[in-house]
Amino acid sequence: MISVDEALDKILSHIRPLGFEKVSLLDSLGRVIAEDIYAGRNIPPLDNSAMDGYAVRWEDIRDASQDHPIRLEVIEDLPAGFASTRTLEKGKAIRIMTGAPVPKGADTVIPVEESKKVADLNLQEDRFVLIFKAAAPGENIRKSGEDVKQGDRVIFKGDMIRPAEVGMLASVGRSFVSVSQRPLVAILCTGDELVDVDGDLDEVKIISSNSYTLGAQVKDCGAIPLQLGIARDRKEEIAEKLRQGIRADVLISSAGVSVGDYDFVKDVLKDLGMEMVFWKVAMRPGQPLAFGTIEGKPVFGLPGNPVSSMISFEQFVRPSLLKMMGHRRLFRPVIEAVLKEEIRKMTGRRYFIRGSVTFEENQYFVTTTGEQGSGILRSMVRANGLIVIPEGQEMVRAGERVKVQLLDRSL
Ligand code: AMP
Ligand code: MG
Q1: Does 205 score more than 80 pLDDT?
Q2: Is the CB of 181 under 6 A from ligand 1?
Q3: Sorting pLDDT into bands at 50, 70 and 90, what band is 118?
Q4: Of 111, 125, 249, 258, which has the fewest CB atoms closer than 10 Å, so is most exposed?
Q5: Model confidence over 310-353: pLDDT tens digits?
Q6: Residue nearest ligand 1's atom 8 by CA
Q7: Torsion of CA 36, 41, 42, 45, to 10 degrees
Q8: Which atom of ligand 1 is nearest to the CA of 303?
Q9: Is 93 exposed, middle or buried (0-12, 13-18, 19+ CB in 10 A)?
């Protein structure tokens, strides 16, 4: 039996990143970018107004105050999207909207809140403006290139594309982008007791929930599940179904990898040409895990118990899929939390205990989610983290700090 760390090292050493594909901008959300992105021009392209107000020469308004407003003649109205052809001269102002390029001659923008329009004596409405407050030179002007300069590398190969990156890609004019391919992950559940979610149940049958938790975990990583269905505990049936999965990038089987009389999965995988890398990991839950490769493709024989299956996936399959998709960060965030109750365990194995994490008065606390049997799926439903207790430890007292892998992005 090997340790969790050894198992992970061995697995990851067999995982190669997939190739690339082009996708449209919005479809790139959540994907890993496969190219460096450079800006072809400055953003914003020109100096422009950060406020609705008046473009002025700072020299003209430097002494403005409530008691001594400065009066300027308004010579033009400038909305965003238009450039002025005029050059601002002494004593003049141009009404300017947020985003409009700053006209020649102007060097400062006065917000509309600091001004008041006035009619001139010829009753020509709004031809003048009173400025009630001076500004610093250059104030309220966004400089050309202040966001991005031409030639800047704005997104790095290997970055995850989030809404901000989508916006940046749009800003630099990329409607299509190269991203890492998503692995196709074939999933087979085995067991005479299993029926599909809408199948006929009787007292001895159970629904193959693993088909769906595994499918969901695959999707949650950004990979593509391929359901091979359910195989009864017969070598030929398992072999036939698994053979259909070999064309996928990753093959996952669930159950039948233990030492029971009907646990045929390992034998069948070997018959199909799998080179077994290891079987059994010193962890709980999830000890009976088989890993190997068929034609270089990773094959995971996961344990059947619903919690063991989920946790084995979390620890080993998820980082593998993320690596295939070019992610730089393969692991969940780990925090330290104060344990609210005592935990006892056997030494020699790493425990993954389902926990509920809260943030109170500037620190994290964690409680277990109750009954921790490997068939208690509700312990996962209630959990937002996995408490990791190292191999050598026998107990942790209430009040001590433990490491917790965060399963949710929000707490
Ligand atoms: P096994 O590894 O075949 O001994 O299965 C261990 C336990 O997991 C048994 O109680 C099975 O009924 C249960 N189990 C196996 N496969 C599934 C599945 N697809 N969905 C839910 N439970 C399962
Ligand atoms: Mg079984």
Answers
A1: yes
A2: no
A3: confident
A4: 125
A5: 999 999 999 999 999 999 999 999 999 999 999 999 999 999 99
A6: 305
A7: -150
A8: 2
A9: buried
- From the CB of 254, is ligand 1 less than 6 Å away? yes
Which conformational region is residue 226 in: left (phi greater than 0), alpha (psi within -120 to 50 degrees), or beta?
Answer: beta
Identify the residue whose C-alpha is closest to ligand 1 atom 23: 304
Our answer on whether the CB atom of 265 is closer than 6 Å to any ligand 1 atom is: no
Helix (H, G, I), strand (E, B) or coil at 62: coil
Ligand 1 pocket test, pick from 203, 210, 230, 287 with the greatest ligand atom count within 8 Å of Cβ, gives 210
Distance (angstroms) between ligand 1 centre and the Cα of 31 equals: 33
Position 40 pLDDT exceeds 90: yes
Kind of pairing between the strands at 141-142 and 250-254: unpaired
Enclosing H/E stretch for 243: helix 235-245
pLDDT at 120 exceeding the cut of 90: no
Ligand 1 midpoint to CA 306 (Å): 7
CA distance readout (Å), 154 to 24, 32, 40, 144, 145 = 18, 15, 11, 16, 12
Structure-token pair, residue 313: 């996936």
Characterize the bridge pairing of strands 37-38 and 153-155.
antiparallel
Is ligand 1 within 6 A of the CB of residue 194? yes
- CA angle, residues 348, 352, 381, in degrees to nearest 5: 155
* pLDDT for residue 192: 97
Cβ count near 20 (within 10 Å): 15
Ligand 1 centroid, distance to 305 Cα (angstroms): 5
The per-residue DSSP string of 289-300 comes to -EEEEETTEEEE
Residue 305 to residue 373: CA distance in whole angstroms: 9
